[in-house]
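Figure caption, in words: inputs first, then the predicted bound structure.
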Amino acid sequence: MAEFSQFGGGGRLRHLLTLDGLEPDLIRELLDRAGAWLSRPGELPRRGHELQGWTVANLFAEPSTRTRASFELAALRLGADAVNLDMMLSSRAKGESVLDTIYTLQAMQVDVFVIRDAEPGVPEYVARHVEPQVSVISGGEAHLSHPTQGLLDALTILQYKGGFRDLAVTIVGDVRHSRVARSASTALAALGVGELRLVAPAELMPDADEFPGALRFESFDAGIAHADVVMMLRIQRERIAATPQPDLARYHELYGLTAARLHRARPEAIVMHPGPMNRGVEISTDVADGPQSVIRRQVTNGVAIRMAVLAHIAATRRGCAL
Ligand code: NCD
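Bound structure (N-carbamoyl-L-aspartate present):
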């Protein structure tokens, strides 16, 4: 099969399927643009005209609250029409094939497809088949990639920490099945993060050839020591076929973030979680709602990042650098 590229002209994105291969300057540009879409607390959200006349279709085949709502709001706030469809896109779906669905929506003049699917390869498959003016953005691909989440996590860290070079970032939980961890680590590596640590029980640790350069810990207490950023992950039960599933009380004891454990990190450490949270499992309620939690800021940043990505792609199509 021919080599696929998510880039259009001039090193700019036509699609966004993965953060792999993005130059640090492009990542920084997207973070910068996103920052400009944020308003102050209490103010109305910022709006623009970058997508005036465009139509964005959200095609989500897995559950989503934050990602889907924020793509929709991002599209609307940039002047686009938005349509949301719950669907099974992958080849497991019965009836109408993936491409029939895409071609049907393309006939309604959809400009951007945002796609979430449990099966690897679906976003690229669609991107290979759409018309030249149409773009595809991944809203989460299997356990592999969640590029806009990686960007919003990087933006959140940048806002609170001012940079990446001197930081120790600890990602904790089901790293093995997490597209969030993969995209965050790709973004952080590109931005030159000081130290990336992974904390997980052996069965939820990724294979050795993944997450190059990351330090691996089975002990949460060791992995959180003096960390600047602690990113908690949900157990991706839907991606764990083997039974038995982990014992949740035992899991909380070993890998739950409690106030006592958070004391081992730096006093000004921030706590992140992509959502949805399982309070009392990977994170205790007092920490989730506590002063070090930036979980809701991540959500706010998610809309801004998606506006930045959509506006970037629109500018690529117009053939200008924005
Ligand atoms: C994550 C996802 O879907 O990968 N959620 C999100 O997009 N904010 C994380 C998860 O489901 O655990």
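Strands lie at 55-60, 81-86, 112-117, 135-141, 168-172, 195-199, 215-217, 229-232, 270-272.
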